[in-house]
TrEMBL record:
This is Glyoxalase/fosfomycin resistance/dioxygenase domain-containing protein. It comes from Paenibacillus rhizosphaerae. Pfam families: Glyoxalase. CDD domains: PhnB_like. SUPFAM superfamilies: Glyoxalase/Bleomycin resistance protein/Dihydroxybiphenyl dioxygenase (SSF54593). InterPro entries: Glyas_Bleomycin-R_OHBP_Dase, Glyas_Fos-R_dOase_dom, PhnB-like. Residues 5-127 form the Glyoxalase/fosfomycin resistance/dioxygenase domain.
Length: 131
């Protein structure tokens, strides 16, 4: 059996992680920088090598993209399913600040709330409630 983890490469992992903690609640659990590596270079010493956070009760891992630029795509969306409608509405509103609402959160034909957005860091999210 496998365990799924989300790992986000970012232009600024610390700022992005702080945004998710503010938007969804939670905390940054740990941060390691390239400066902690043996033979670290001055250029990358403050860049995030590995960051762990918990937001909305979900573990998310992050790193600064230092060896190649971040390229946003449309193939993957992060999905958060909430038990309570007020939680879903609040998460949608906060995550969409500075971003783009692709489909406003509203009751869907299958009986759950559902909405799509792209946050200000270019990450696509689907926010829903259990059916």
């Amino acid at each position: 059996m496998a365990k799924h983890m989300t790992y986000i490469f970012s232009e600024d992992a610390r700022a992005q992680a702080e945004f998710y903690v503010q938007a969804l609640g939670g905390e940054i659990v740990s941060v390691q920088t390239h400066g902690e590596l043996p033979h670290a270079t001055e250029e990358y010493k403050d860049k995030v090598l590995h960051l762990s956070l918990v937001a909305a009760g979900v573990n998310i891992l992050m790193s600064d993209a230092v060896f190649e630029p971040v390229q946003q795509g449309t193939a993957i969306n992060l999905v958060l399913e909430f038990e309570q409608e007020p939680e879903a509405y609040a998460a949608f509103e906060k995550l969409s600040e500075g971003g783009t609402v692709r489909d406003p959160i509203k009751p869907a034909f299958w009986g759950s709330l559902f909405g799509q957005l792209e946050d200000k860091f270019g990450i696509r999210w689907m926010i829903t409630t259990g059916s």
